[in-house]
Design goal:
- This protein is an all-alpha fold.
- The chain has 7 helices and no strands.
- α2 crosses α7 (about 135-145).
Length: about 150
């Protein structure tokens, strides 16, 4: 039984992997936060009335979409549109969803939800960055796959 666990243990102290995982996670955070916070800002500053839950669900969806769009645009410098889109769609949805959930849960917890305030944005971004980072490190180290 100990043989199985020895095979799945990884080196969590590799600075190069942490650096690359952090860089990739940061790009994902940029893409996700554009759609997420843009959606929250729209509802905050408009008279459009929706429940906090519905706004947060739409913000998460829009964050995923903008992250995929941003990644596709970045990859267009290196490859065709079809391949760039396929690569962007192949990013880790688990990583992006955990990032989105963390950002939105922090917003709900600290402001009651669907309210962007200057003091909460850095906390949301920090939560969105830290949450998927260990998974992105593991995925890069064990599977050799980056989230971006």
């Amino acid at each position: 039984m100990s043989n199985i666990f020895e095979k799945i243990q990884i080196d969590w102290m590799c600075k190069d992997t942490w650096r690359r995982a952090s860089y990739n996670t940061l790009w994902c955070l940029v893409g996700c936060s554009i759609g997420d916070m843009g959606t929250i800002a729209f509802f905050q500053f408009s008279n459009f009335q929706w429940s906090t839950f519905n706004i947060m669900c739409l913000a998460i969806f829009n964050g995923l979409i903008t992250s995929i769009i941003l990644e596709t645009i970045i990859l267009l410098r290196q490859m065709s549109f079809e391949l760039a889109l396929k690569t962007a769609l192949g990013m880790s949805l688990l990583s992006m969803i955990s990032m989105e959930l963390a950002m939105n849960l922090v917003d709900v917890w600290l402001t009651g939800g669907a309210q962007l305030k200057l003091w909460v944005i850095p906390i949301m971004l920090l939560a969105g960055f830290i949450t998927p980072l260990p998974y992105n490190y593991w995925r890069l180290k064990v599977l050799g796959k980056a989230c971006h």
